[in-house]
Structures are given as structure tokens and as C-alpha cells.
What we know:
This protein is mainly α. It folds into 2 domains: 8-153, Vacuolar protein sorting-associated protein Ist1 (Ferritin, Up-down Bundle), CATH 1.20.1260.60; 161-256, no CATH class. It contains 9 helices and 2 strands, in the order αααααααααββ. Strands 1-2 form a two-stranded antiparallel sheet. A hairpin with a 2-residue loop joins β1 (220-222) and β2. It is elongated.
Amino acid sequence: MFSLGFSSSKTETTCRLCLGRLKLQREKRQKMVKQYRKEVAELLRTGKQEYARIRVEAVIRENLLLRAYEILELYIELLIVRGKLMSDSKEIPRDMIEAVSSLVYASQRVGDIPELSKLRAIFASKYGKDFVIEAAADGTASRWQVNHNLMQCLLVEAPVPEDKLAMLSEVAQEHGVEWDLRAAAQVLLPPSPALGPAAAAAAAGMGGTDCAACHMGGGFIAGGVGVGVGVGVGGEGRGGTCVFPPAIGLPAMDGG
């Protein structure tokens, strides 16, 4: 499994090139996100809710990729520091398994950073092709301690409705846009048929339930009602008044 051809200096050079590329791509995508958010805000302001719900997916995807960049940068910095140690060791140092495996995993999913593929080739030479194959595959990545948050950031699937609603709320707050949050919630998070007629009828009213959608700090005006919304995108904490119908399908949560 040990390769005499492994060079810590070559690995460091590749890592530094990778960091430079990540910085360029991060700046590029941050500008894209800023533009996308402006577009979403304008769509909300002009009442084009359906288009806003579609456009906000691009904001979420880019934000996830930016988070992935941050994780990768940390691992690459660690690899630079530990390069000599890895060169002298036949096996992956125990405290480097997550970093190395995560970089391998990302190399096949982050196409705009070609230096990741070069690092994967270096790792294949050092630790064997079987390791690289397993670390890169979804089914076996966890066996090699690939960072779970990184895997979630690089998932190729549409954002869940809760995240779309939370991001729409965040963008509306940022740009001071008034919009009907309750109506948007009823479209994105329709009541489950299993709730029955009584629950469906309750969905037409206003609820005061402390729900999972009301746990992001910071209120804003939505249809004239101050709210604080968050379902995992854009912040933590609690605040505001719940405007979601009690039958919206969101889980009740304890706490003030």
C-alpha cells in the first residue's frame, strides 16, 4: 500500500494551487449568490411567487457549495501541515482519515476544482485504488469517515420545501420585501391528507403553535405580520410570531 513515489512537496504544491482555485471560485459564486438573491427579491416584490420559488433553488445550491468549499479549505490546510507525516507513514494517519477521504469524495463532485482530481491521484498512488474507489462512493464513504456535512452539501437533489420557504423568508427580510408568508407556506407545505377534515379546516386560520419553521432569529414584515422563520437555512435562534396554520404539517416544538 505504501508508495515510494509519494512526494510531500508535490502534494503541498497541489494543495496550494487548490486553495487558490477555491478562493477564486468562492468569490465568483458569492457574486452569483448576491445576484440571485436580488432576482428572488424582485420576483417576490412583483408578485411572481412561482418564479421566486424556482429561482431560490439556485441560491440554496450555491450556498451549499460555498459551505462545501469552506470544509475543503480546512482539510487542504491540514494536509499542507501534515504532509511530511503522511509521507513517512505507510497508512493514512488516524487523525487524517476524514480529511483525505473527504477530499477524495469531493474530487468527483466538485468539477470546477481540477486540483482535487490531482490530489485523488496522489492518494491513489499512496494508499491504493481500492481506497479511492470506496471513499468516493456514496455507499462506502461513511466507512472511510467522509464528512457527513460535506456529503449533504454535495447532494444532487432539489432543495426540500422547508429550506426553500426559509430562504425566501431570509431574502425577503434582507431586501425589505412584503409578501404573504402564510400563502407561500400553504403552497410549499400543504397539509397532509392524513390530518383529516378538521385539521384541513384549521389550516385556513392563523395558528400560534411554536413550530419548526419559526426558529430563526430576526423578524420581518410578511403580509403585515412580524415573523421569524428558519428551517435550517440561514441562522439559528427563535423570534417573531408564528404565522403558519396549526395544520400545516410542521412538528410542534417545546420552548419559548
